[in-house]
From TrEMBL:
Protein name: Transmembrane protein, putative
Keywords assigned: Membrane, Transmembrane, Transmembrane helix
Transmembrane annotation, as ranges: 513-532, 591-613, 633-654, 708-727, 757-783, 804-823, 829-846, 867-884, 890-913
Source taxonomy: Eukaryota, Sar, Alveolata, Ciliophora, Intramacronucleata
Organism: Tetrahymena thermophila (strain SB210)
InterPro entries in UniProt: Pectin_lyase_fold/virulence
Length: 1122
């Protein structure tokens, strides 16, 4: 109908439905999701060509139509809608509630639009088309939907809305513009700041494509931030450090943005996502939207083709996987230049210029600055088209680590020809560009060097294939070839050290009982070996002095080799062998199992290897202000000192008190003369002081012997360790200490420690100490057989011939030179092998010529050990040429194992299984065990060698001789005592006679006392009495003369008969009785002297008989030796 003025108020239209539907397609669903109507432009109320229309206080609820199910206004002058409600109305196509078309003026006030739906088109509640709206105010738009198109609440097309305020938009939904969609119109209600939410309230509106609250057209382009994909970069985007001639990196990901500067989504995007919800999977069926999106393409171009060339696909469509436009473009320019490129849409868009309130048509664009870097390592520069330079990356299987140098005057092809890609080395698993992915077991200093090293010392520590490695090293390891532990947690954050193994372990395990127990066992073994060597040296000194006396007296003739404890000498030979064998471990060829090398290390090979393993964590924390290697240096010096002090303390605790007491309580053999009390006291004091002095001298000799043993035992490894802290090695133009390859050289602190501490200590150990010992031996070369010299310095020369007393110094310097070759020649193993081989061969020739040992067996054993060492070196040299032949390699390993184990068994046999004595009680524990085994297995006797004679039989004869000499000495001592008693009695008798004025007095004074005193004096036995100088005839002559003197004394006493004198009966009777008693005593003493004298003669004859027997035995011994 056509009206000029119409007013509809206070009405209610509920459940109205357009009846002009086709019956055959009239399908209603329970939820009324889809309603098919006739395509007729009618709703509940349709008004055309009117002047004024007032709609006030109406309610439209659940009305359904093909479009605009409630009100449709077309071509009018003025429309006013107020205080009305549009609830749950539905249209199949446009406008779920009402349409305003071609109206000159309209006001919509105080109305509600709730749950209206446009199922297949736009305008969920209202469509405003080519109309002017004065104001839309105080209205509520809630839960309106246009899911397939635009404008969940309102769509404004080619219209003018002057005022839009005080409205509330809640939970409206659409594909584009969840609340409001603008098409070809100026939004006067939006300020210059493009803030549309100041006068209205927008809450929880949803747009599946773009514009959740208000949307016009796409408003621009943005770059997805490659560092944070949730961020967008809208302008001033720069691509830094781009490689000329390669794809732009990072890849350009561009999006089109809406009014809210949010990226738009494309129809079907959510259908591509498996994790999208059902509500998001909306099918956009509106053909206008699909056609619109089909034109959304982006292109890329260079702003200056002479400075930047782009290769690749320059037009991009939306990528549903990346939810962006992707540009894989190759950019070519000159290195170290900047160029610009532009990304823009292929079609223009209506864009609102809010400054001038105009709608402009232009393409959406984004300018990007490209900063080209120079060609880097792994790339080869190539000139293209005489104006561009490409940086071509080395392909897979090749690499380049050369730094590209550019000339300021320009580049030419000739200048770039020096750069080329290299073939991937065999030690690498993969190569590409400047990447060299090494295999496990190899190491290099950094990523920009192709000097690859095999981790010969600890190959298991080099794990470049492990993704968790740091600098190609396993966890806990640092330094060159990952050979050091991170003792202070600099790299790995926690402290790591070596605990009983070569692997770096957490220092928290250092306090475990197993580690402490191993350390205690190691110290105990070294102390035991030290005590064994020093004790054997002391025993040898005592025996040597005793045997020398016996040889001088011809009681015992025995060579020097029979006197030496050969077990200790062979043990020294083993230590010498072990110290050199440990050097061979660095030749990258396994000879023996690791546990045997550990045994070598404990007994002389490398004593600090195991001690460092147990105390690595403790050493690094000794002095935190010093570097780790200085802490190890201090520990190296104090370690032998600890054993020296420990041995001295043990000797003081267990040997000194007992020895001192026994020495002071021993009988006085210095003199047999009877002194006055004062003189005797002085003699005793002198004697005590003398014995204390001797005791101190003996202990000082033991301390010297202890020091000498520790020096010769530890000197090779101590000097090697000190030398490792002095010498630096060059690793890719970086100098590091050999002893601590995590420490750089040529820095001020390292130079200070080197000059102040390390070099002086090195001079003392390698020059001053051996020079001092050699000087002492040279000055005392004629007194080397003395007791003190043997006890103090016998460890150096006891097994050598007297003229070759210096041979131990030759051996120690040989070991020092060989062991130090690990440090000096560590880079060239072949040169190190040749050096050791020549040194050992020269030593072998000299030993064959000189024969320094006092025994032929010892010389032969030393030569055999040297031959085995030379054999090992030769096998190493051969094995390096046949590494690829595994079978031959195993054969060589087996051969080396057999040879070295055989020589070890040979030495052990000489140490523990010497020639068996005939006496079971004189066998050591190993001999007893074997002897018992032989009793059960008699065939074993063929492998046992017994001593040709009992070498200790002469000692039993010497014991008898010693008993006879002691008895002879005691007899003389007793005789001296009797002479003194007789002299006292004689003086008493003289005193008595003088009181009575006896006539015999002059006779006694002149003859008898003088004769008596002359005859009974016996000289004390000389302490230097020697059987060799003893004269049998003189001995008998002395005995006869003493016998005659005693008889003369008896005759004289008998002639002095005091009874022949007549004296008064009073006093003379008393004198007579006392004289009689004295004479009786003298007679008894004389008879006792006579008997003792006869016993003395008997023992003299017996001694002479033993002497003759001993002499005959000596002659037979010489005959057997010949």
């Amino acid at each position: 109908m056509i009206l000029f003025n119409i007013e509809i108020t206070q009405g209610s239209f509920t459940n109205l439905e357009n009846t002009q539907t086709q019956q055959d397609i009239n399908k209603l669903y329970s939820e009324a999701d889809t309603i098919l109507y006739q395509r007729v432009p009618t709703g509940v109320i349709s008004i055309f060509n009117f002047n004024n229309a007032v709609i006030d206080n109406l309610v439209f609820m659940s009305c359904k139509a093909y479009f605009s199910p409630t009100l449709y206004f077309n071509q009018g002058q003025y429309l006013s809608i107020s205080n009305s409600k549009f609830i749950a109305n539905q249209s199949y196509e446009r406008a779920g509630a009402l349409i305003i078309n071609n109206l000159l003026s309209s006001d919509i006030l105080d109305s509600e639009f709730i749950s209206n739906i446009s199922q297949t088109s736009y305008g969920g509640a209202m469509i405003i088309y080519k109309s002017t709206i004065n104001q839309i105010a105080n209205c509520t738009f809630q839960k309106n939907k246009a899911l397939s198109d635009s404008g969940g609440a309102i769509i404004i097309i080619s219209s003018e809305v002057k005022v839009l305020k005080d409205n509330q938009f809640f939970q409206n939904q659409a594909a584009i513009g969840g609340a409001i969609r603008l098409i070809q119109c100026l939004p006067y209600f939006i300020n210059k700041k493009r803030d549309y939410s100041i006068l209205n309230t927008f809450t929880d509106n949803i747009a599946t494509l773009y514009g959740k609250d208000l949307s016009y057209n796409p408003q621009g382009l943005a770059i997805i931030d490659p560092k944070n994909p949730n961020n967008l970069i809208y302008h001033n985007y720069t691509l830094y450090s781009q490689q000329s001639g390669s794809l732009i990196n990072p890849t350009l990901k561009v999006v089109i943005i809406d009014e809210d500067r949010q990226p738009i989504k494309f129809p079907g995007y959510f259908n591509q996502k498996a994790n999208s919800t059902t509500a998001q999977k909306q099918v956009i069926e509106d053909i206008n939207v699909l056609n619109q999106y089909s034109l959304y393409q982006l292109s890329i171009m260079s702003n200056n083709n002479t400075a930047l060339q782009l290769d690749g696909t320059k037009i991009s469509n939306f990528d549903y996987e990346e939810n962006a436009y992707i540009f894989d473009i190759i950019a070519i320019a000159k290195p170290l230049t900047q160029s610009q490129l532009t990304i823009q849409t292929t079609i223009p868009f209506d864009v609102i210029d809010f400054n001038v309130k105009k709608i402009l048509q232009k393409t959406l664009s984004l300018t990007i600055t490209v900063d080209f870097r120079s060609c880097i390592r792994g790339e080869i520069p190539t000139i293209q088209n005489q104006q561009f330079i490409t940086c071509d990356k080395c392909p897979s299987g090749k690499y380049s680590i050369e730094e590209i140098i550019y000339s300021t005057t320009g580049q030419s092809e000739q200048q770039f020809s020096q750069y080329s890609c290299k073939i991937c080395p065999q030690q690498a698993k993969f190569c590409e560009g400047d990447i060299i992915q090494l295999k496990n077991g190899y190491w290099r200093w950094g990523n920009y060097t192709d000097n690859i090293y095999y981790c010969s010392k600890y190959p298991q520590n080099c794990v470049p294939e492990d993704p968790h490695n740091k600098f190609g090293c396993q966890k806990g390891t640092i330094g060159v070839q990952c050979s050091e532990c991170d003792l202070r947690g600099v790299i790995w954050g926690e402290k790591y050290g070596r605990l009983n193994t070569d692997e770096c372990q957490d220092c928290k395990l250092a306090s475990s009982w197993s580690n402490i127990l191993i350390l205690i066992v190691e110290i105990f073994i070294i102390l035991l070996y030290q005590a064994y060597q020093i004790n054997k040296q002391r025993i040898f000194a005592l025996k040597q002095c005793a045997y020398k006396c016996l040889r001088i007296t011809y009681f015992l003739i025995m060579g020097k080799s029979e006197l030496i404890d050969q077990g200790s000498i062979y043990l020294k030979m083993y230590v010498n062998y072990a110290q050199i064998m440990v050097v061979f471990r660095s030749f990258q060829f396994n000879i023996l199992p690791n546990f045997l090398f550990s045994i070598f290390s404990i007994f002389g090979g490398d004593q600090f290897s195991l001690s460092f393993l147990n105390t690595d964590c403790f050493i690094s924390s000794l002095i935190l202000s010093l570097p780790v290697y200085m802490n190890k240096f201090i520990y190296t010096l104090t370690y032998p000192l600890i054993f020296f002090v420990a041995n001295a303390i043990l000797r003081i605790l267990f040997k000194t008190p007992q020895g001192l007491i026994i020495s002071l309580k021993s009988p006085n053999y210095l003199t047999t003369i009877k002194y006055r009390p004062s003189v005797l006291e002085k003699q005793k004091q002198k004697q005590i002081l003398y014995k204390m002095k001797q005791f101190v001298v003996n202990n000082l000799a033991d301390l010297k012997s202890n020091f000498i043993f520790l020096y010769f035992f530890y000197a090779p490894t101590v000097i090697k360790t000190i030398l490792s802290y002095m010498i630096c090695q060059n690793v890719d133009d970086k100098f590091v200490l050999i002893g601590d390859q995590s420490q750089f050289c040529n820095i001020n602190s390292q130079q200070f420690y080197l000059v102040t501490y390390i070099v002086p200590v090195f001079i003392v150990w390698i020059f001053l100490i051996p020079a001092g010992l050699l000087l002492i031996l040279f000055l005392n070369r004629n007194f080397l057989s003395w007791m003190y010299m043997k006890r103090a310095y016998g460890y150096i020369y006891q097994e050598y011939r007297p003229s070759i007393y210096y041979w131990e110094f030759i051996k120690i310097y040989l070991k020092i030179l060989i062991i130090s070759s690990q440090i000096v020649l560590n880079k060239d193993i072949r040169l190190q092998q040749m050096y050791i081989l020549s040194s050992l061969f020269l030593y072998l020739l000299v030993t064959k010529k000189v024969k320094p040992y006092s025994s032929t067996d010892m010389n032969q054993c030393d030569q055999n050990l040297t031959i085995v060492l030379i054999f090992n070196i030769l096998i190493f040299c051969v094995s390096e040429q046949i590494n690829s032949q595994i079978l031959i390699k195993y054969i060589i390993q087996t051969l080396l194992f057999i040879v070295n184990i055989s020589i070890i068994i040979f030495i052990a046999k000489h140490i523990f299984l010497k020639k068996f004595p005939y006496s079971y009680f004189k066998m050591n524990i190993f001999q007893k065990i074997i002897f018992k085994l032989c009793s059960r297995f008699p065939k074993l006797y063929r492998y046992i060698v017994f001593q040709p004679q009992d070498p200790y039989r002469v000692f039993r004869n010497w014991k008898k001789l010693r008993q006879l000499l002691l008895q002879f000495y005691n007899l003389k001592k007793q005789k001296n005592f009797l002479n003194e008693q007789m002299y006292k009695l004689y003086k008493t008798q003289v005193n008595i006679s003088s009181h009575n004025s006896l006539e015999i007095t002059p006779y006694i004074k002149q003859s008898q006392p003088k004769q008596l005193k002359q005859n009974i004096q016996i000289k004390p036995m000389n302490s230097t009495f020697s059987i060799n100088k003893y004269n049998q005839q003189q001995f008998m002559r002395n005995c006869n003369s003493k016998k005659a003197s005693i008889k003369l004394m008896e005759d004289s006493i008998e002639r002095f008969d005091i009874q022949s004198y007549q004296e008064p009966s009073s006093v003379n009777q008393k004198i007579f009785s006392s004289q009689t008693l004295t004479q009786v005593k003298l007679q008894s003493i004389s008879s006792q002297i006579q008997n003792n004298n006869s016993d003395l003669i008997f023992f003299k004859l017996k001694t002479n008989k033993e002497y003759k027997a001993q002499k005959e035995r000596r002659k037979s011994l010489f005959q057997n030796q010949n």
